[in-house]
Design goal:
The protein is α/β, with parallel strands linked by helices. The chain has helices at about 10-15, 15-25, 50-60, 80-90, 95-100, 115-140, 165-170, 180-190, 230, and strands at about 65-70, 145-150, 175, 180, 210-215, 220-225. Helix 4 (about 80-90) crosses helix 5 and helix 4 (about 80-90) runs parallel beside helix 6.
Amino acid sequence: MLLGTRGSAALRTASPAALLAADLKLHDAKLTADDYLYLRTTIDGAVLPDTPDRLFVTAPRRPVILGSNMLELDLPGGRPARDGFVDLSFGATAEGARTWYRLDDADPPPHPRMGTRDQQIATDATFRCPAGTLATLLAGRNWPVWRYEFDMARDGGAGQTSHAAEIDYIFNDRRVGPVSMQDYWVAFATSGDPNGDGRPVWPRSARGKPANILFDARGATPRDGDIRPDICRFQSAL
């Protein structure tokens, strides 16, 4: 509508300059930084006719791998946007999240793996907690769900990880300690289950029994329970 047109056919006739100019005018009041618009779910009536949480009620069950990295990204919009970001991310429970993060206190030293408090807030609200919510939702409806957390630097060194760092380890078969993440993903793609061939068992999440696996310099470590449940209980967004 920013171009004064409706439908894909009209968009195909628009010039690249017009499309780019229209993109700069897009705004979402639910975001503290509009460069994160690409993360929003577009309910277009065709590919997504309804909200994801409603669609999962009737969707056929499929095996799913989902996860997040120990540290994903910096705070969208930076420190000036932190209060608004917490309010938007945690909604009615934002005050509980503020208390948990101790936002009235001076910044604590950065966590060696999860980064600064702002980076932890960004990762929790944008990736870690939504992944946990989705895993719980799907497992509660008996979907086969395997959840992971990844903590390796892009260069394989001792530095912190970052958003999408795990992709190189999966597709280029770079070793994570003594194991291959690619082996898990290939097994999942061929059988619907990432386990087998003597690899450390990746526990499946089940209704009321969340589980995950940690990929880091030690290899693959199966774990019971949620990830960061003390803060993620304040957020229910997907």
